[in-house]
Write a structure and sequence with these properties.
47% helix, binds zinc ion, single chain, alpha+beta
């Protein structure tokens, strides 16, 4: 990607707004201890959320070397329904109550697809841990997510409205779950296939 006065990302890595206006605010150069490896660091600001994205390049070229943070992507190996829910949860983090419901739906869809279709989200998570689909640690993490998600779905009058940080935490769990039960096994399978081919 070329670094110009704007950063042409499909979505802001912070607020996930589509077609964001992310403009160059400030840049500076650094080198290593031997005055070598000079890189220019560019701070880009999202006009929607004010979040800063940092990109680096060499002085001789406008091509980006690194971009932090990376925009969140949803891997293709996740089953379609869960993938759609997860994608929409990421895209609506600026509307936290809706985002949390979508993330909970993504978690629910993933567990159902793995054969844990019975009972509440709590029961499904517990069953998934008992059957070692997820670890006990993930179950513990999930239970904390579930409480917040249920706050939204049951519209408890006493529950405070969630903020973006609450939504980010739950989306982060949904992504970790997807990574654990789909993305990593898929990578492992690809690795096995690759080494098989090389051996032959
Ligand atoms: Zn933004």
């Amino acid at each position: 990607m070329k670094l110009t006065n704007t950063l042409n990302l499909k979505r802001c890595p912070h607020c996930n707004i589509a077609s964001p206006n992310i403009y160059l605010q400030h840049q500076f150069a650094t080198t290593d201890a031997n005055d070598q490896n000079e890189r220019i660091w560019c701070n880009y600001v999202c006009s929607n959320c004010g979040g800063v994205t940092l990109a680096s390049k060499y002085r001789s070229s406008d091509i980006a070397l690194e971009i932090f943070p990376q925009p969140q992507i949803v891997e293709d190996c996740i089953p379609e329904k869960a993938k759609q829910f997860l994608q929409q949860a990421i895209e609506t983090i600026h509307a936290p109550a809706g985002s949390i419901m979508l993330a909970a739906s993504a978690i629910d869809a993933m567990l159902q697809e793995k054969g844990f279709g019975k009972g509440s989200l709590y029961t499904k998570i517990q069953d998934a841990a008992t059957d070692h689909l997820i670890t006990e640690g993930m179950a513990q993490w999930a239970h904390q997510i579930r409480l917040e998600a249920n706050d939204q779905r049951h519209a408890d009058a006493d529950a405070a409205l969630p903020n973006e940080e609450d939504a980010k935490r739950i989306v982060e769990f949904a992504q970790a779950l997807a990574e654990f039960i789909y993305v990593l096994p898929n990578k492992v399978n690809q690795g096995i296939e690759k080494t098989k081919e090389q051996k032959q």
